[in-house]
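Morning run. Coffee first, then this:
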Amino acid sequence: GVVINNDYRRRRMRELKEEGSEDTTRDFYVSEIMSAPFLADILEGASIANEVNTAPNYSYQIERKHGHNWAMVGDAATFIDPIFASGVFLGMKSAQLVSGAIIAKLDESDGAVSTCTAGLDEVYATIQGTYKLLYRVISGFYDPNSLTWADMGSAADLIHEKNQTALAVGHYLLAGDFFDRHEEYMKVLDLMQDPKIMKKYKQLVLDRGGLEPGGCGMHRDQIFPELVRAAAEKAG
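And here it is:
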């Protein structure tokens, strides 16, 4: 499967239609797959066995997340693309924050149920800020016009040492350091997803000689030896 930024997908679909494509969904899928050299090498001579299907963005968020005697946490409150496998951590951390606010309120009112939700409002503001940050990270991951940490990582040897801190930001973020600092990380994403910054970074770093393209650096024969051998035997 291929997951694509929606704006990019719409633009490419229009271009394919203008080029005379009779099945823009299929042709778009093939063009994206074949744009990766490693995949193009693996799929050389292959054909599509099933119809190409698409699925819309299935992320969602519930507008009202708490009320009298109830509160939502984890996927029940907000669900985002699980590409970074962060859902369990988000659910557990949000549950910890919400339960902490509830316990504080019960202690404050000597165990009596209170209708005051100020503590929960503050906690959910933090949780919502975190989910908004991660959604930006995921959207940027799929956006070909956005600078990603993969881009910076592949160019690490060409970047001055003073920029190593910027490279480390991605590791801290993906390690879960975002609930208390989501506003700071959002500023970093604002820079990374600024078209002017991306253009300048491309000119100064990505287009310079000596940059090795991202990848594992291995040939398909090394990664899929049994499949390659079976295919060769079948071909005769």
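The first strand starts at residue 60 and ends at 61. Good start to the day.
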